[in-house]
Amino acid sequence: MDLSRRGFLQAAALTAAASGLTVACGGGSGSGGTKNGKSLTMWYWGGALSDKVVAEAKAHFGSQTKLTAASIGGDFKQKLTTTLAAGSSVPDITGIKGEDIASFLPNAGRFLDLNDLGFKKISSQYLDWKTKLAQTEDGKQIGFPIDIGPTALFYRADLFRKAGLPTDPDKVAAEAGTWDDYFALGSELKKAVPGTYLINNMGSVFNIAVGQGTKRFIDENNHFIGDQDHIRAAWTTAVRAYKLGIDARINDQTWNAAIGKNLGTEVGAAWHALDIEQAAPHTKGKWRVCATPGGPANQGGSYLALPKQCRNPEEAFKIISWILSPANNARGFTDAAIFPASPASYAMPAMTGPDAFFGGQKIIEVFGPAAKAIPVSYEAPADAAVMAPYFTELTNIEAKGKKPDAAWKDAVGQAKQIARRQGVN
Amino acid sequence: MSSPPVTGPATVPEHRGGPGPARFRPRRTPPAGTVRPSRRGVLSHWRQYLAISPFYLIFIGFSFFPVLYSLYLAFQRYDGLGTKQFVGLQQFEFLWNDPVFWLSIRNTLVIWVLSTVPTLFGALVLATLLHSVRRFKGFYRIALYVPNVTSIVAVAIFFGAVFSNNFGLVNAILGTVGISPVPWLSNPWLIKLVIALLMTWMWTGYNMIIYLAGLQAIPTSIYEAAKMDGAGPVRTFFQITIPIMRPIILFTVIISTINGLQSFSEPQVLFASNAANQNVGGPGQAGLTTLLYFYQSAFLNNDYGYGAAIVWAFFVLIMVLVVINWRLVQRGRKS
Question: Which CATH class for the B91-334 domain?
Answer without folding.
Answer: mainly alpha
